[in-house]
Design a protein that fits this description.
Rossmann fold, 13 strands, 2 domains, 24% strand, 259 residues, eleven-stranded mixed sheet, two-stranded antiparallel ribbon
Length: 259
């Protein structure tokens, strides 16, 4: 399902945004009353309160797969999710990781009005991921934070965000699977550190599989050899062996022409 905003007067542009909001509201599952957002158990020891929370902002640095891992559980629970400003976000990998493409909105190139796009999406979508293309002013971040609290939405920022409630960073990464110069890379072990508010001033660290051999996410088992590489996933596929095919329709919104 594709929405493309035409070049027109401000009134027509606003109508296009309202149309997108109305269509999503009509299809979106009822939001749960709890402030906890479904979160993969691998993040229980890293995030404040052990999960994503409604009305909060979480930074996710160093890996597109980390962003996907944070989106997977909310999506699997029936929530809509949106991804803004990550053109390398691989839908094939997202599908394999459990993200429901029928409830995924992609805005790969939001243009100069990216912050307005995020705010509009947060009005109707419970979990929004964004890579800020520029430095976010504290006043802008504060206004959006108030909007997130009012709507009960969660923002995952793939970059620096003033006043974020928590920050996750991939500090080291190593792929496994190659043996004697042949084979497939089948899992990636990473060290993820986390800091945040409410007793989270001191960083915590955990070794995770992003992804593991089953194309899922898990904690690394105690006693295994520690990783030594320092590489970041920027390709957006999240896994070298992920193949294309079997894709469901994805709701894409092109907001570049709204600028």
């Amino acid at each position: 399902m594709t929405l493309t905003a035409p070049l027109s007067a401000p009134t027509a542009r606003l109508e296009r945004v309202e149309e997108l909001q109305a269509r999503i509201q009509g299809m979106q599952s009822t939001r749960l009353e709890t402030r906890a957002v479904p979160t993969h158990p691998a993040f229980a020891g890293l995030l404040p309160s052990g999960s994503l929370r409604e009305g909060t902002v979480v930074e996710a640095h160093g890996s597109t797969t980390l962003v996907m891992a944070l989106l997977a559980a909310p999506s699997a629970s029936g929530r809509w999710v949106a991804v803004v400003g990550l053109p390398e976000f691989g839908v094939e990998a997202a599908l394999r990781f459990g993200i429901d493409l029928d409830r995924l909105v992609l805005v790969p190139e939001p243009g100069r009005q990216w912050l307005a796009v995020v705010a509009a999406l947060a009005d109707v979508i419970p979990v929004v991921a964004v890579r800020p293309p520029a430095r976010v002013a504290p006043t802008e971040a504060s206004r959006l934070a108030a909007r997130l609290r009012e709507r009960g939405a969660t923002l995952i920022a793939a970059g620096a965000w003033p006043g974020a409630d928590a920050s996750l960073d991939v500090e080291a990464s190593e792929w496994h699977g190659l043996e004697l110069g042949h084979g497939l890379l089948d899992e990636r072990e990473v060290v993820v550190s986390a800091a945040g508010r409410g007793g989270f001033a001191k960083r915590r660290r955990s070794r995770l599989r992003l992804p593991d051999r089953g194309l899922g996410f898990s904690e690394a088992r105690p006693g295994e050899a520690r990783i030594g590489a320092d590489a970041h996933d920027t390709a957006g596929t999240g896994h070298p062996a992920v193949a294309a095919g079997g894709l469901a329709p994805v709701l894409r919104a092109d907001f570049r022409r709204l600028a």
